[in-house]
# Entry
Amino acid sequence: MGVKGFVEGGIASIVAGCSTHPMDLIKVRMQLQGETQVPKPDQALRPAMASATRGAASSIHVPVPPTPPPRVGLITVGVKLIQQEGVAALFSGVSATMLRQCLYSTTRMGLYDILKNKWTDPETGNMPLQRKIGAGLIAGAIGATVGNPADVAMVRMQADGRLPAAERRNYKSVVDAITRMAKQEGVTSLWRGSSMTVNRAMLVTASQLASYDQFKETILEKELMRDGLGTHITASFAAGFVAAVASNPVDVIKTRVMNMKVEPGAAPPYKGALDCAIQTVRSEGPMALYKGFIPTISRQGPFTVVLFVTLEQVRKLLKDF
# Structure
């Protein structure tokens, strides 16, 4: 297969990414809901000072953290987005999505295809589930490393509209975003959140590609359906659900780390992925890690369906090449 697998995976990924971009944008906006900066420990009132000032409590004002705005759902976020920023805002960052799919998805799909052909049992023509998962983990990690700059740019371009006008980055395109980030924040900023990106990509690729192949093989082996569009849609939607459940917590943390704004000379809001996860759980509760799950599954389901249905059709078209 070689290069052919990369081409087939790349075409299918770009089609799927562009067609589900609006849902991905809404997912990012929902994941950033309620994001607040928790006061640092050294800013808190020490117990000794608290006891010493009890008598004068009426003259001392202790700042109370602002109450976060109420969380809103998928439809409300989408409607507000259109009302405030226009319909075109649903495709904010679509150029970054296309670049991301060209780099990340093309790499992971092509590598998975190579490993799949290499590790498939030549006698039975089947590949054990554990090998599929292993191939997905390896392909996802390499693909995410290659595509991280485009991923950071995509998250920032999608989230820019929620910032006050004076604080918006106003990137003109994915090239402008990557260029400005490299100049203003250093080249290493292009790999900000890469640990989370790699972890998420490993989970998504292993769960999405491995489960699709497994579901498809099971359906055909048990003769529940014939090898056609119905089988492809069923297997791909089931794979999309598995991928969404596995990746959503990592996706929330990745989105917040990539979107954080670091002022010159100031400490970053999060020290890293683990610190972001701890702050998120402390301030918003454990279920915050599944924030945006409805748009995630609403996007992951159709994305996976379009991805694999398109992939199967592209394979048919290119089978003679």
About this structure: The longest helix spans residues 129-159. The chain is about 65% helix and 0% strand.
